[in-house]
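Student: Hello, beginner here. Can you help me understand the protein record under this note? Any guidance would be welcome.
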Amino acid sequence: MFSFLWRRVLAGLATLLVSTFVMFILVSASMDPFFDLGQSTASNKQELIRQRIALLDLNTPVVIRYFKWLGNILHGDLGSAWFVGQPVSAVLHGAILSTIQLVTAATFLAIIFGVAVGIVSALRQYSSFDYLMIFVSFVLYSLPAFWVAVLLKQWGAIGFNDFLADPVLSWVAIAVIALLAGLLWSLAIGGDRRQRLLTFGIAFAATFATFAFLQLSDWWTHPSINPPLLALLGTATAFAVTTLSSGLKNRRALAASLTTVVIGLVLYLPVKVFFQNVQESWLMMIGLGVLAVAVGIGVGYAWGGPDPGVSARTAGITAFLVASMMFVNQVMRVWPAYYNAPAINGRPVPTIGNSTPNLGGNFWVQTLDSFMHLLLPTIALVLIGFAAYTRYSRSSMLEVMSQDYIRTARSKGLPERTVVMRHGFRNSLIPLATVVPIDVITLLGGAIITERVFARPGMGTLFLFSLTHAEIDPVMAYLVIVAALAIIANIVADLIYAGLDPRIRVNA
């Protein structure tokens, strides 16, 4: 393992050195450091040009300038963005933070939904649901990113903001939404005619009841996850997680998962009081999340069963999801104050930037504001990523399910859930182990089009601005970060291979 990592790190450093040298030469040749002085009519134009030459050290040969830049990088000096008059480290800090906020949610959601839908589509091959998902994924994959972003601005921001001014859904609209949900679930689950009708009825009733509750309880203006709703969502989560993790026949795992939901309900009011008497921070939230997972794992081991590790895993995942619901509830509680703030002016879904100027407010208000600014660009990236991951996971799952060891597992009488989740799903992730790390690194380099449309000051925006204004230090810092992350992504992909497939050894 260590010899493999050592070899890959050395090879990566060599690749990084060569790539930065080539890029420095190319960027230096393509930039015009006098773009703003070319048409200047200032009387001291020549003096300004001489000052620019001295500032950028342009009389020095480009190769020597590269090694000077490399020496500064090795000493922790990233240079300066001369056009904006700030050090590169300060400019990068805000851009990296903005991009990570956007990429984290978008990548996670795209992978979860894309892989889940792709696997269901593969298991329901040549069904109506499969054809529908193929059509939807190809449509989404072919849409230009800027066009998706513009449509989201029109309907997701302007349209939804207009709806919130008078949030009333007609009963006909609710019935149509419930009808579509029932049809989709019946196509996804399949089965004989009786099972399809049963699935349709349950999905229709659940969706209709949910939107009726939102309508009658005035949830749009005062959203929250109150204890009854938390109990309902938590119980559904416990059953869903147990079904995927161990199967409902594992009663100990189901009991452990449901116990974590009960603990969450018991702590609902104490947690609410706790947040009213402390100074909140993201470090505290992360710590509480880790504590929730630890409690869930402890509950799982306490229940035990044939395999205590399975119960612990199931309860830990459930505990994390229930804790996330409680966190979301705390954020929702400040919605009326946020919506009525003068800086928001009744238009809570923004279309540009990453924060609202002059908003003020406590931790929860600022968190809600960040979430609202992330909403539309995240949806744009999720839609495009969802299409790709659906196609990847479907084709990979189809290939795996046709293998001999799948037929062997079924012939031994293993339950279909075990065959799909343990033998099929895990092996179908191997091709995705190549795609996902590279996609994450690509997005960390900046979703340039999405950031430009939504005016988010991320890495992509920084790269375009620096390239346009001939600031070589920020451009090179950007390229170094992206290249280094790409090298790390390839190493991580190899390690994921070994974790997913025991036949693969990184020290071979």
In short: Residues 363-401 form the longest helix (39 residues).
